[in-house]
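Let's sit down with a protein and look at its sequence and fold side by side. Go ahead whenever you are ready, and we will take it from there.
>
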Amino acid sequence: MRPSERTPEQLRAVTLETGINRYAEGSCLVSFGHTRVLVTASVEENVPGWMRGKGQGWVTAEYGMPPRATHTRGRREAAAGKQTGRTQEIQRLIGRSLRAVVDLKALGERQVVLDCDVIQADGGTRTAAITGAWVAMASAFGYLRAEGVLKADPILDQVAAVSCGVFNDVPVLDLDYEEDSNAEADSNFVLTGSGTIVEIQATGEKRGFSRDEFDRLFALAHGGCQDLFVMQKAAVDAALARG
């Protein structure tokens, strides 16, 4: 039995609450169990200098964790004067994941910045951020279409992410911190609604893992993302219905 008493294929309780920030074009408070991430989508009428004149937009992300998002207080990265390598790696992953499902030409010369702030961390913050970022971005595009700024929806597909791992020799879905810190192997899967793979991160932490174990992890991730896609669509539909 898992520490949370979940079955191997069971997600934590997931919520996707939209309209959290009244100022951002799109926002989502995503919860995977005790992990909570606030995502805002800001649309800027410009693009990075290296993209000017190309007739297309850009999607990027920033990721951060306030000092008491974890069990003990951490130092603010701003106070340290630089971002950690982990922060840079995660925000690049989020940006890549969202760009994989956006028609940048349909976006025009605009930039979408997805700010992902981890309010509380209990494992899977990057996967929660990606899943919530898609909701925030889709909500922002819906708002821009309603305002007549965009003629067509730039979104090509859904994208969601979930962690999996081998815990006590059993492949399991959606690791919380207790499982993640003790797993023999862990992985993060970023998948699209049409079934394509955006990214897979998989590591043997305490031992190598077999092909059969990897196949089981992939199957668990696929099933978990199918559930997340349904929740994402319901959240965005509710946001657009509210206007």
